[in-house]
Amino acid sequence: MSEFVSRYGVLQMSSLDTSFINRERELGFLERIWSRQGFQLLILYGRRRIGKTRLLREFCRGKPCIFYTCVESSPEVLRDEFIEVVRRRLGLSVYGRDFVEALVDLVGKYRGRLVIVLDEFQYLARSIRGLTSILQRAIDEYFINTDLMLVLCGSSISFMERKVLGYQSPLYGRRTNSLHLKQLNPLDIHGFYPEWSLKEVFMAYGVLGGTPAYHKLFDERKSLWDNVYEKILCPGEYLYDEAVNLLRQELRDPHTYLSILSCIAHGYTRVSEIASKIHVDQRSMSKYIRVLEELEIVKRYTPIGRKKPVHIRFRDNYFRFWFTYVKPFQGLLELGEIDHVLEHIRGTWSLYMGHVFRDIVEEIAVFMYRNGLLKTKPLNIGRWWYKDLEIDLIVYDDESISYVEVKWSKLDRYSIRRILNKLREKSRRLGITRRREYYVVVSMEKEESVLEENEYSIDISDLEGCLRKL
User: Fold this and answer.
1) CATH architecture of 2-180
2) Do residues 34 and 149 lie in contact, with contact meaning Cβ atoms separated by under 8 Å?
3) Is 91 left (phi over 0), alpha (psi -120 to 50) or beta?
4) Are 378 and 363 in contact (CB under 8 A)?
5) In this predicted model, what pLDDT tens digit does every residue of 273-332 receive, in sequence order?
6) Strand ranges for 143-214 from DSSP E
7) Strand pairing partners for 420?
8) CA separation (Å) from 299 to 186, 302, 304, 314?
9) What are φ and ψ of residue 443, in 5° steps?
10) Where in the chain is the domain with CATH 3.40.1350?
């Protein structure tokens, strides 16, 4: 039954898939489109496992809907499967020499508002030559004056952006809306662990990132480390080799990409360093980095106010964790030395979470501003470094600037004072001036200390207090 559900669009959820967490904004966006009169073409795309299908199924619940998941198959098989979905879902008999003709026949026979979701649209397009042109003609001739809401959903970001949304696409100008579904932010995933502290939630985010499908595999009743042991470090578990499997699905030859990600995990962040380490011509590195950026695995960083140097860092924490702690120790893990590897992880965890926590603070800067923890509106946010000097985060608008240091540790009042004094010294090298300047330390835990008027010390308990007020 579960296989039929996934392939043929029957909108019944299994008992293992009942949670729908923190996509209210996106769901509201879809509902607004549904409430509009006339034909609507929505392009929804995003990386695999990010929750596109789950979001669309939640949206389609209770609505007249055809939900068809495309696969790599012949045009005839895809057409016949679609016709069968229509018969089972709506009780209509539709016909067509090809897939689009069957789609047109359905829209012509059905009376009233209807949602048609073509999930994994890239497979349909690969099977049917010239599909976007054929679909464009069907929209112009048959769909434009109907109440159809057509959703084209895809996991291949490059395909959806270039072949469906791109200026050269026949569908360019036909879409009424598009939505790039991205990872949940660190605060959103609290919904998967309502009984955990915010510190534990941040640690889970450091392991799995913001991919909902991964968090559903963790058991809130167990500790973070038990989950890591059972769900990631044990050979044969889904998350044990998910990183490699995802890259294999997306890339023809993932070997070079695996080498690049391994280098980043070991602290090589300059393109020249990575190219030298893996023996690849530096001139070809931009292609590999661009692909990894499209997959939302890495991100380029440049110092505020400068275009160089460029550093490549992880954007997805599951890949960060996997390439830091799983890939290097697969030999030991395969031999059953899981406790040994877990001991190493826990011994180096503070250093690892230091990088993650800095990213978390950057991601939740708007939340901190709205709750008064940051005094500068985050219109601009970034990092700065020069030689051996570095400032974790700089937030600035037209009126003020905040210099922020982030520490995954418990800070006493002497450490806080030392960090703030050093932050003031480094800020003078930046060259950005505003009428108001603020100096901020964000830590895992802090000791109360004496601060000057424009200084702030924030820890996770302050963030947790703001969440409780919501």
Assistant:
1) 3-Layer(aba) Sandwich (3.40)
2) yes
3) left
4) no
5) 999 999 999 999 999 999 999 999 999 999 998 888 999 999 999 999 999 999 999 999
6) 148-154, 177-180
7) none
8) 17, 10, 15, 6
9) -130, 170
10) 364-469
Q: Measured between alpha carbons, how far is 244 from 258 in angstroms, rounded to an integer?
A: 8
Give me the architecture of the 364-469 domain, per CATH: 3-Layer(aba) Sandwich (3.40)
Q: In angstroms, how far is the first alpha carbon of the chain from the final one?
A: 40
The token pair at 428 is 């003078």
- pTM score, whole prediction: 0.90
pLDDT in tens, 396-414: 999 999 999 999 999 999 9
For 225, 246, 343, 445, the CA distances from 410, given in Å and listed in that order, are: 21, 37, 21, 4
Q: Given the structure tokens 């609505």, which residue do they identify?
A: 63
CATH fold for domain 188-358:
Arc Repressor Mutant, subunit A (1.10.10)
432 with 447: CB under 8 angstroms? no
* pLDDT of 5 over the 60 cut: no
Amino acid at position 333, single letter = L
Q: Provide CB contacts within 8 A for 362, sequence distance 6+.
A: 381, 393
Burial 342-357 (b: 16+ CB within 10 A, else e): beebeeebeebbebbb
Q: Decide: 117 and 82 in contact? Cβ < 8 Å.
A: no
Q: CATH 1.10.10.10 region(s) of the chain? A: 188-358
Tokens, residue 276: 């030298």
- The DSSP-derived string for 375-393 is SS--SEEEEEEETTEEEEE
8 Å CB contact between 127 and 78: yes
C-alpha torsion angle, residues 419, 425, 426, 427 (rounded to 10): 110
Contact status, residue 299 vs residue 317, Cβ threshold 8 Å: no
